[in-house]
Structure formats: structure tokens, C-alpha cells
Sequence to fold (132 residues):
Amino acid sequence: MGKAARRLRSQARSLPPRGRAAARTRRPETAPAAPPVRASAAAADVVSGAGYLVARRLSEVPENTMKLAVGVMLTSFGVFWVGEGSGLHWPGSDLMILVLVGVFAATALVLSLAMRRIGPSPSAEPDAVGSR
Fold:
């Protein structure tokens, strides 16, 4: 019997009877960090690969349209999480996010069409520098 085995046996004898079986099956206090690190690296690879595949298609989308879509999604998630944080129970639970996206997208569409109808005001054009 080696030194380590003798030391474990003496430690097990000092434990209460119920603890002896637990001492033999006890696992290390800290788990290795390798699985989470591998998982996060794999997720980064998947996202990078997806970004590489859709980069050309996304470059064809007008910038303002993309900004509007991102704004609608961020606003929808933000409103949902503020409600969740303040104790609001949404009907349909997480599916309410889709309803919020629809509401904000419809509102943005209606307001955009209304602004096009109005058109730019004559005073909205920038003055030339030093034209006074």
C-alpha cells in the first residue's frame, strides 16, 4: 500500500461512519474548464462561418433597412425584458417577443410611409457653409 492510500485511509477513519463511503466516492471540488472552453470556441467558429457565408448577401441590403430591423429587434427584446424584470407575466410567455416585433415593425412602417407623404420641409436642406 502506497503513502497516498495510507493517507486516504487514515482520513476516512477520522470521518463519521456515514462519511466514509462518501469520502471514497468524493470527486474533486473543481471541474475542468475544458468543456466550456471548447463549446465557446465551437460557437465562435459557427458564428464566424455563418458570417462569412452571408456577408456578401448582407452587403446588398440597404444600410437603413438593416438599421431599422436591428432597432425593431432590440426594442422588442428590451421591452420584453423590462416587463419580465418588473414582474410582468406576458401572455404566451416568450412568444410575446414575436408579437412585439410585429407591433414595432408595423409602427415603423406606418410612420415611414407617413414621413414620405409629408416629404422634406424646405428648411430641412442644409445651408452652404458661409452663405450668410
Remarks:
- The longest helix spans residues 34-59.
- Helices lie at 3-14, 17-25, 34-59, 63-85, 96-118.
